[in-house]
Design brief:
By secondary structure, this protein is an all-alpha fold. The chain has helices spanning 3-8, 13-32, 43-61, 66-79, 81-99, 102-112, 119-134, 137-154, 159-176, 181-190, 194-221, 232-241, 250-260, 265-283, 285-292, 295-304, 314-319, 329-347, 350-361, 365-382, 388-403, 408-420, 430-439, 443-446, 451-465; strands at residues 38-41, 307-308, 321-322. It has two domains: 3-81 and 329-465, no CATH class; 83-325, no CATH class. Strands 2-3 form a two-stranded antiparallel sheet. The protein is globular and about 70 Å long. The two termini are 21 Å apart.
Length: 475
């Protein structure tokens, strides 16, 4: 009998759930009574550590060795070393892709395809492209999202309809982009690698996007629009600030090519950073020198810390900003805190008890997928945070998926299909509140049109019910 199995026999299910209940209660208090600032900017991290401390107390009370808990924490932290390094490189990639003109070029060419006759599906595609390029649904909505809602309203299209199209595309890109923090967080929690996660997630995500585009196309064909989609000012500002050329797409194409050739993620992303830095000097020398007056200093700043490209267009100023590696610290600390919490829970045997309890009530694979989806939705409602809707179910269900002989990418995909995308459908969730505020459209107005977001968990359950593309652990 293994140490963990032996330890799991010490605790009852009620005792095992105490740290989880404490975690949820503190999160709820933080959101509803202290306006999210119980411990400042790092509230979620501190709350995870407090819950871990509560688990330690339970373990000590049950005479479980501290050394066993430390061992599990160490193993957990060691398992996320590569994801943490990838997150740092993602920050560097975002900074260098900005100053090299890659992101501005994607915005420029994306908006060029806009047409009044296919405005809604075009809005989905443009938002998806920008979100893939930036790795952020929030940035997409705050920039091209605002512009698209403004243009759509001028054409006589209901704002909620346009906002739903923007959010659908933005969250598709947020899920599929290697630059996205949630796309890195989900595989880290489940125990798989970034690009395996993205490739496997596309099996449910792409069909959902195609259905979304079909629905918006049908709606567009039955809409009567007036006016014109005039984005000439935005195009002019981009052209004045950056040198825009299709050659800039060589950077993302190279990274994608390396990924398809199965080059290690760290090397593929590092190549993207180096190539973008070269392109920045060659194509955007004026932009680079405006940052600090030195090529080396400017590129270093883009890689390591914040960098902003100031233009005369307020919406573009929001988009043309990056936090570099420094911008990834919050997410990395959340992962580390989650690993500490999960390590202690594993060390005292609590996760084993909870897993055994869940497995007794999940007779089929569909039951397990349904329980995971329900947990993600529940935490988005209770904890009001998409990160915790990924972290907590990720740690709770990891062993349950292993016990069912399911590969970890099944869990990581389900976490994103139900945790990431549904957060924006809840008015008091941070994502719902943000999108509603930025786009100037209430959640109730865009809810029915955020088609991609509410179809995603349904799609993942359909795949589970049909046993379609459900990968098992190789013997």
């Amino acid at each position: 009998m293994s140490e963990n199995k032996a330890v799991s026999n010490v605790l009852k299910i009620g005792e095992s759930l105490i740290p989880v209940v404490l975690l949820v209660c503190l999160l709820a208090y933080n959101i509803f009574f202290s306006e999210g600032v119980l411990f400042g900017d790092y509230s979620n991290q501190y709350i995870l550590l407090l819950a871990a401390f509560a688990a330690i107390i339970i373990g000590v009370n049950k005479k479980i060795a501290i050394s066993l808990m430390i061992k599990e924490i160490y193993n957990n932290l060691k398992s996320v070393l590569v994801p943490v390094l990838i997150l740092f490189l993602v920050g560097a990639l975002a900074g260098t892709w900005l100053i090299s003109g890659v992101i501005p070029a994607m915005v420029y060419y994306g908006l060029r395809v806009l047409s009044a006759e296919i405005f809604l599906p075009a809005a989905v595609i443009i938002s998806a492209i920008i979100s893939i390029a930036t790795g952020s649904s929030w940035t997409t909505s705050a920039t091209v999202g605002i512009a698209l809602v403004g243009v759509g309203t001028a054409l006589g299209i209901p704002p909620g309809m346009v906002a739903g199209a923007v959010i659908s595309g933005a969250y598709f890109g947020d899920k599929m982009s290697p630059l996205s923090d949630t796309t890195n967080l989900a595989p880290a929690m489940a125990g798989t690698d970034l690009f395996t996660h993205i490739k496997y997630m596309s099996l449910t995500t792409v069909p959902t996007l195609l259905v979304t585009l079909l629905v918006f196309t049908i709606i567009s064909l039955n809409l009567t629009t007036t006016g014109d989609t005039d984005l000439s000012e935005m195009f002019s500002v981009i052209e004045q600030t950056f040198y825009i050329t299709p050659w800039l797409f060589a950077v993302p194409v190279t990274v994608i090519g390396l990924i398809l050739l199965k080059v290690k993620p760290l090397l593929a992303l590092l190549s993207g950073v180096v190539l973008a830095a070269i392109f920045a000097v060659y194509f955007q020398s004026n932009v680079v020198l405006q940052i600090s007056g030195s090529y080396i200093d400017s590129i270093s700043q883009a890689v390591l810390t914040e960098v902003e490209i100031v233009t005369s267009h307020d919406a573009l100023n929001e988009l043309f900003a990056s936090g570099g590696m420094e911008g990834m610290i919050w997410t990395i600390l959340l992962i580390v805190s989650a690993m500490v919490f999960g390590g202690v829970m594993d060390g005292i045997g609590a996760l084993g008890v909870i897993t055994e309890y869940l497995l007794k009530r999940t007779k089929t694979t569909l039951d397990l997928f349904f329980a995971t989806v329900a947990s993600c939705l529940g935490l988005n409602i209770i904890a009001s945070d998409q990160y915790l809707a990924i972290v907590i179910p990720g740690k709770m269900f990891k062993k349950a998926f292993e016990e069912k002989n399911l590969a970890p990418e099944n869990l990581s995909r389900t976490l994103e299909d139900s945790g990431t995308v549904t957060s924006v459908l809840i008015p008091w969730n941070t994502c719902g509140a943000y999108q509603s505020s930025v786009l100037g459209v209430s959640v109730s107005e865009y809810f029915i049109f955020a088609i991609f977001n509410y179809l995603s968990p349904i799609t993942t359950l359909i795949f589970a019910a049909l046993n379609l593309k459900i990968r098992h652990i190789s013997k």
